[in-house]
Design brief:
By secondary structure, the chain is mostly helical. The protein is built from 7 helices and no strands. The chain has one domain (2-210). The longest helix is centred in the last third of the chain and has 38 residues, at 173-210. This is Cobalt transporter.
Length: 211
């Protein structure tokens, strides 16, 4: 359970070789899928696919940041998580604005390629999420890593559903709706990460003052 991990235990778990190895794998997978989805999203005109690609890019940066702070103290890892939470909120706002723009100027995306890429992304993210599942109950930084991988898998499912909706209706509306949902998920998860990080920062400061 998240609340049952002491500061010393969380520190040891976060710096473990297994967690570091898992982060490296997640970083490589996310960077590769960003390139695939970004190119495909632009090629087929899918806002949802483009949004998912930006999510991959953000997560790759988050994993790189997490690898940097693994050996740091709790307060610095919490600050890194706070930065990641703010980035997720900004990502959600950007995607929402892009979807609203596409609603006025959008072109119906090509659903077959959109669906195939969505399935490929789902398989990649499902593997990453399963690999990171054991680390979900750590400190704010470890929780943020787990939330990122979970949100990616949910986003991939949404992209696949959007592709099916576009194929069945011939309308761009399913693509735009999914993009808006993904932006809302990013906003919510970002706020959750910020709240956890602020709590961990407060706890670390109390421990430091007592010491």
């Amino acid at each position: 359970m998240a609340g049952c991990c002491s500061h010393s235990t969380c520190d040891a778990s976060a710096a473990s070789p297994r967690f570091r190895q898992a982060l490296w794998i997640a970083l490589i997978v996310n960077a590769a899928m960003f390139l695939v989805e970004f190119v495909a999203g632009l090629a087929v005109g899918s806002v949802a696919l483009w949004a998912d690609a930006l999510d991959f890019a953000g997560d790759a940066a988050n994993y790189a940041l997490s690898l940097t702070v693994l050996s740091w103290g709790l307060i610095w890892r919490a600050r890194a998580a706070l930065l990641k939470g703010v980035a997720m909120v900004l990502f959600g706002a950007v995607v929402m604005a892009r979807a609203l723009w596409a609603f006025q100027h959008g072109v119906t995306p090509e659903p077959i390629t959109m669906g195939v890429v969505g399935i490929l992304a789902l398989l990649a993210n499902a593997g990453v999420a399963m690999m990171l599942y054991r680390f979900r109950a750590g400190d704010a930084n470890m929780r943020s890593v787990w939330l990122c991988s979970r949100n990616d898998a949910i986003g991939n499912l949404a992209v696949i559903l959007a592709a099916a909706g576009v194929f069945g209706t011939g309308s761009a509306l399913p693509d735009l709706v999914v993009a808006l949902v993904m932006s809302g998920l990013a906003l919510w998860s970002g706020l959750v990460i910020v709240a956890h990080a602020r709590r961990d920062i407060g706890d670390a400061r109390q421990v430091h003052q007592k010491g």
